[in-house]
Amino acid sequence: MRRRSRSRKPLAAVLALVLLPIALLPIAAHADPSSPLSDPASTAWASVRDADRAQLARHLTAYRANGYLPVDLDIDTANGRYRAAAVFQRNTDGLDWRVLRDLDGTRFGMESHRLRAAGLRLVDQQSYLLDGARRYAGVFVENAGDLDWTSRRDLSLADARRMHEQERGSRIPVDVDVYGSRPSYALVWADNAEQVPWRLHLGLTGEEYRATFERYRGTFRLLTVDSVRTPAGQRYAAIWVENTGDRAWAAHRDLTAQGFVNWWRRYFDEGYRLTGLNRYDTADGVRYAGTWRQNSDRPRWALKQAVDQRVRHELDSTGVPGISVAVMQGGTLRYLRGFGHADVGKDVWMDGTVSGPYNSVSKAIAGALTFDLIESGGGRLQLGERTRDHLPGLPAHHTHTVGQLLNLRGCVGHYGQIPAATFTDGPYRTARASVAEFADVPLVCQPGKDWRYSTHSYSVLGWVLEEYTGKPIGRLVSDWARRYGLTSIRPVDPADRGVRRMTLYTAKNTAMTPHDYSYKVLGGGLEGSVLDMARFGSLVLDGTILRKASLDHMVTPPDRLDRYAYGWGTGTDRGLRFADKDGRWAGSRTYLRVYPEARLVVAVLTNRDGGGHDPVLLGRDIAGMVLDEQGRR
After folding, report:
1. Is residue 403 a contact partner of residue 384, using CB atoms and an 8 Å limit?
2. Reported pTM
3. CATH number of the domain where residue 560 is located
4. The predicted structure's pLDDT at residue 28
């Protein structure tokens, strides 16, 4: 029986629904919701940042509807602008929750008592100035464990320390907020039924905070940190709790907006979730602090450090601006990481979800697309059919078959015979329009008797698929990619400003303007993230996109003319079959390598062509590390 699924897989999908991406990951065992420190091992999460009042309201409504609850809220009005941030997690237990905001102290107190009576517990508290008046906000979550709790606000430092002494015997602090030039403190406490060791520090200078952070690093994890600007300098308040389970965590403070985004994306790649976010004013302007918690097995992957070192060596020894790498093994994302910069001038770090040109890796995608259409076509599309049976308007000298277009035995010319300058009327909306520019150029050999590399062969294939499906090739690829959840894969369209793209660089690391790719969609005109490149490879290997028989056919050369099969190069490594495809064009290089039997996928994406870096060697080396590690087990 055929094993096949058209449904989208949730593995590390990235949806651009909010100011920062939403992260959807497999749900693992979650913490007891009665715990004051709910700390699931793995959960879906999302965050928003710098939202105005109306945007925050929309986010709260949308995330409630989609089954999330807020675990952290921050509202800041530095420079007179209302800016809100929130962190959400999947509401696995279906807990009720409420968010109060923009209330004066009397109203906030009354509403807090009402929600307590209704069975909710305060988990986060905020204070800020709005139109010159002190206002308060809070997150309340259903008190599933019936924990006793208490909160105070507008405390002086001395009052906050006295409360610390009063509550330390039986309760644990779950939130601290510091505000105003005095400054003032707000604290939330809950029963410490699990007797979790904790530490609360208030009124720390920057140096005191740094020293405390380093002292606790081995035993405790940072639960939350907040900061305020005072006449005496910046002051910090923070809560640390015992790092039960020895799971990884990370925290950063005093970040610029771009610095925060860089770390956000870095930790998303590495398998962490954001748990807390604060925005505050400093002498140098608005700054951000964030805390992250391990949310997958990726931070503990046995080969993480070795792969990090290998990619870092490639970056440092060649000076390439940026490299991103993804490794999937057995359908599981083992490694995702960007190195260097996606945009040097703007200090945007490279990451695993930024899009870049796939170049000739597009041909491997064309192979899977074609075989998928053949599988579902009931015989209406076959590799052995003459191309002109589908394209009767093609000149008579095109005697190749559909399969020969895909395996490069069709003898269509490459750039030596059909230079890029031929395509002067782009952008091209269809493959047919592109082929019209070179259809009269003679073939360069006898089809089926020789092998010649050709990007333009795939343009002719694209026209075939247009006629077969009735869709322009760009829409066909985009619809097909979305069907499998590969939402970043699409034809390159530099005019589309809605795509988060890496900047492309010359061999001398000078930023360059992207070229037109529309004339070669299947041959070298697709773009996407390194994550989706790896996921594509994994979906091909696990039977989601193709049956095993089709996969085997696609990665088996039809003859001994060349090791090139149907969109893929082929070979053996350590006694295992592999299929691969590399790509290079002005401003970028790419590589994809898959091992069907080992179900291993390695993907590499860079933003420079030339200058000595070698994604093929890099990908091969990383794959070798994984295979060697498998062999030792």
Report:
1. yes
2. 0.93
3. 3.40.710.10
4. 36
